[in-house]
Please model this.
Amino acid sequence: MAPSDEVELMNMVRTAHGYDSGPSFVRYPRGAGYGLETLNSVFKYDLEEMPMSGNKLKIGEGRIVRDGRSAERKNKVAILSIGTRLATSLLAAKQLEESDPDVSVTVADARYMKPLDRDLVRKLAKENHSIVTVEEGSIGGFGSHVLHFLALEGYLDGQVQVRPLVLPDYFMEAGTQQQQNDAAGISTGHLVTTVQRLRGDDSLTDPNSPTARAALESSFVRSS
Model:
């Protein structure tokens, strides 16, 4: 389990505590919580105050956090996040829809690396032309798990475009979370650019190309 915010962290700790059928693991996120105002404005919670304890979740069930607006399938994009990249995904979706009246962006929170919510992934693949996965993990992690499932189900045979955003496979310099996310290519701007390139804007630099990665890392090292 990978929580997206402090409420989900409480829910997942409660879920792990109540699970006795085998081992369980919660990825405890780095950094501070978002606070009540951000939870309500960005994550669309309806909280009057912070809860004192979590609620038990259904094992292996993700969630749709943001529904995209009505559009033709060719203009529909899904961002599938796991962990703390959810806030970034929601901000990117808002920015994309505000800048392009045709695009529709749905955001989903996988919640579980394993077991993967296959029904959720199927739904996203059937209803959207493109899927972008984003995680705070390197190649071989959540995005690879999703790609493997989509390949076995036949969705990669021309039905859906998929782009995984992951951490680069090298040791990161010490720095703030924002510095590291920018250098890794998993910040809001990188999500926006990835979707725009999927939609045919070839004038933008691919944020996942080796050249772009090297430039980001070089800039990050100099600034820190």
